[in-house]
Each structure stands twice: as C-alpha cells, then as structure tokens.
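Deliverable D4.2, example record:
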Amino acid sequence: MFVLSNGNRIDEWDLFRAMMSDKVSSCFYIDLEKGEVCELEKNGSEAPTKLKIIQKSARYLPIPRVRLDTKYKELDSFNKTMFMYEHPDAGKKLERAIKRRTDFAECLKIVEFVDKYEIDGWNQWSIDGGPGDEMHEWVEDLSPRIFMEDDWDLDDDCELCKLIKNGAHSVGDFHEAAAKEKRKKAAKLATDDKLKKYPEKNDTSTGWNNSDRK
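Output generated by the structure prediction step:
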C-alpha cells in the first residue's frame, strides 16, 4: 500500500493496473489529495475541459506506463517458468507471439483462453517482477509526496509516524517531519559512536559510573 503525505492511501493494485494498461484511449492520474487513481477517456465529450483542469492543477499527477520491453520480458519469463510447463501447446504459441512482438493484449488472450485464472497468476507474477519494480522505483522518486507504507514502522518516537497518524496538512509538513527525524537519527548515531569508543564510562553493571573511579 502507498501513502500520500497527508496520510491518505493509494491502492497498490489500482496503481499497478493503470501502469500496465494497454488502453491508448485513456490516460491515468493520481489524485494527490484523495489518493484515488483516476482514468480519463481522451475521446469523451468532456475530455478537453477536464484535461485542461488536470494539466493546470498540482493536485493530479500523471501515471506513466510500464515500458513495453519490460512487459514482454516478464511475460516471457512467466511463460518459460510456469505457463509452458502446465500448458505446453499454448506455451509454445505464446512463445512465438512474444518473439514476433504480437500486440501485448493479444499475447495475454492466449493465456486467458487456456484458463481465465491464469491471468491472476500473471498479474501476481508481474507485480512481483520487473513491472512491479518499475512501479516501486517511480514511487520512490516521488518521496516524500508518496511513499511505501511498509517503509515506516508507526511508532510513537518517529516524527514521520506521528504526522501520518495525525494526518499531514501539506508537503511542507512532511518535509519538516522528515528533517526532524533525520536530526534525531543523526544524534542517536553520534551517541552510539561515543558508547562504542568509551564503553567504560557507561558501565552500569557495578551500579556506579566508571567515570568516578580513581
């Protein structure tokens, strides 16, 4: 799950489906306030007006598509590792289609024709592989506007965690909290270094501080 700087969540699968979409007639955006993944039909009657609003507003972030080379490479890996062993004939057909660079949607139809549930296997395979890596790399580049929920343990001592729990009001709030957390970690590292250099000064095993020894 991905989290916005205001604490709202973005569904990981919704984002992934948008990045993997082959629909050339649509463009996809993230609503940076609500966390919703939005689809805009380019040929719709209201499309020109909506597109102007989206382009002028900082609220909507365009979602890129996963590179076609990445998708073909991952589908080839899925076929050779799993699909072909269970469905040899369909697997060979899919292998030829991939080599010819048949339209990607048509390649997926070969998988779906054999068993519609195989598409679920492909979806899970792809989000765990190269296409999923592209999605995570894109999100990482957007930090601190968007980040992975698992990147932070929501404990009471973490400045970022406090902000997420309470709900940040702006990207500035999030930057400020990130700076505070960075200073706290730097101070802790400095303290840890001192303890490593002078452990005898902090020996409490005898019940008194060694710095008082003569």
